[in-house]
Specification:
Elements: H1 2-30, H2 35-50, H3 54-66, H4 74-86, H5 90-102, H6 110-122, H7 126-138, H8 146-158, H9 162-174, H10 182-193, H11 198-210, H12 218-234
Helix pairs in contact: 1-2, 2-3, 3-4, 4-5, 5-6, 6-7, 7-8, 8-9, 9-10, 10-11, 11-12
Length: 251
């Protein structure tokens, strides 16, 4: 009984230590003011992961994914995302799916991408719903079903996924999986453009210039064309990586 008690106490100490290291590692990364801060955060996260903190693996995946405090390494990023994904971390499941979708650190495999994206979506990851919508829209890893693709995109758009908002605008503009509706397309382009989506801003310029879905307004057209150009020069993307949502999956 005494031996079991000692083992239990040791586990508690390890858990407390892993949580403390994980918390401090996240703090260093979130408030990093220099490359050294990222390196220190990386070291702390490695220590936390070694002690069993599944969430630390998710953060390590992001560090290697975006080259924070270390060189970018797709294979190592995927390795850590995968460990966290096996522990049912939704954001990590999403990343494993996107890595297979894009062929980052592994050969492209749409079917495996679908498997992990479905898991992530089931566990509440809204961006995974967006990528699944793309898969159905374009027939990637699943039979093409534009209607189902549109409904998934719409679900993600309503939950605030910026790329999904833009994609819904595209579908409504073209009549893909839904009846074409220029006014509704304008509404979704505006939602995405206000949050920094360059292509949505450009399309708003076109809509104002041609009077499609909105009253013709040359001044507003020029504003949104200029806004789109400025966003592209600034390198703004629809999704800001925050242990991160990869922004390379586009509409």
């Amino acid at each position: 009984m005494e031996a079991k008690s000692n083992i239990a106490k040791q586990r508690v100490r390890v858990n407390c230590s892993s949580r403390s290291l994980f918390s401090e590692g996240k703090r260093k990364v979130n408030w990093a003011a220099s490359v050294q801060d990222y390196k220190t955060g990386l070291t702390l996260l490695k220590q936390a992961a070694a002690l069993g903190a599944a969430g630390a693996h998710e953060w390590l995946g992001a560090m290697y994914d975006y080259g924070l405090g270390t060189r970018k390494n797709g294979r190592l990023a995927l390795k850590h995302y995968r460990i966290a994904a096996e522990a049912r971390q939704p954001n990590a499941e999403y990343h494993v799916g996107v890595f297979y979708y894009e062929g980052v650190g592994v050969s492209k495999d749409y079917q495996l991408a679908i498997k992990w994206l479905r898991r992530a979506a089931k566990h509440g990851d809204d961006t995974a719903v967006y990528v699944l919508g793309r898969c159905y829209r374009f027939g990637q890893g699943v039979p093409q079903d534009r209607r189902k693709g549109f409904l998934l995109l719409l679900d993600a758009a309503r939950k605030g996924v910026v790329d999904a908002q833009y994609s819904v605008g595209v579908c409504l503009s073209r009549g893909e999986g839904v009846r074409a509706d220029a006014r509704k397309a304008f509404k979704w382009y505006l939602a995405a453009a206000r949050r920094g989506h360059a292509d949505a801003a450009f399309n708003l310029g076109y809509f104002y210039k041609t009077g499609r879905g909105v009253g013709e307004n040359k001044r507003k057209a020029e504003f949104w064309y200029s806004r789109a150009e400025a966003l592209k020069k600034l390198g703004r993307t629809a999704c800001t990586p925050v242990v991160g949502k990869r922004s390379s999956v586009t509409a």
